[in-house]
């Protein structure tokens, strides 16, 4: 079965209980494949990045075959601002959607959700974004001061790899969900003085595992989610904390995705 996310944000959990750890989030308009059903939970795969987790059935709308076909015919826009607002003109009801959401417009800027039509102002979407490192950095800066949230992918709470994944999706590039997967992509940049805006820096723990990622602004600054989304100083050893003036993350490798 194929479904679609019809809520602004949906928690993706490690196991089939609502108290289970949230490992990621599904964004509005993302399509999913249902792998298994257990009681009131779906085990599903996010078709955008193949990430697997458990979701409350009520949070996913299962598509009929003709609806799947219809989706392929609609104009799809990836939201490139942290938050947008639509409104139902009849009732005044509002719908807030996070950056990275996929909008399947019926016509113009009309979006039908659960049999209600919401009107959105013209939005910044992937089609208007330059595919450059500088653009990617500017998109990331929109999330400055967003709180850190394990598994989060929105301005209300986001983790390090979620920030990277969402911002790259705004540039039309789909990355895997976790930093340990993202590090497998791209070209190695050997020295910090060779980096370009938008390159990714990956960091390791004491066991050599990739546990953190951030987006480089230049050879000495990085934007990343740690406590909150912020810009800090980086050198060949790692990130220097703005609070302690000590190293908070140990640099492993720098990669260029495009």
UniProtKB/TrEMBL annotation:
Coiled coil: none
GO molecular function terms noted in the UniProt entry: cysteine-type peptidase activity
The NlpC/P60 domain, residue ranges: 130-258
Keyword Flavoprotein applies: no
GO biological process, one term: proteolysis
Domain of life, per lineage: Bacteria
Family classification: Belongs to the peptidase C40 family.
Name under which the protein is recorded: NLP/P60 protein
Organism: Paludibacter propionicigenes (strain DSM 17365 / JCM 13257 / WB4)
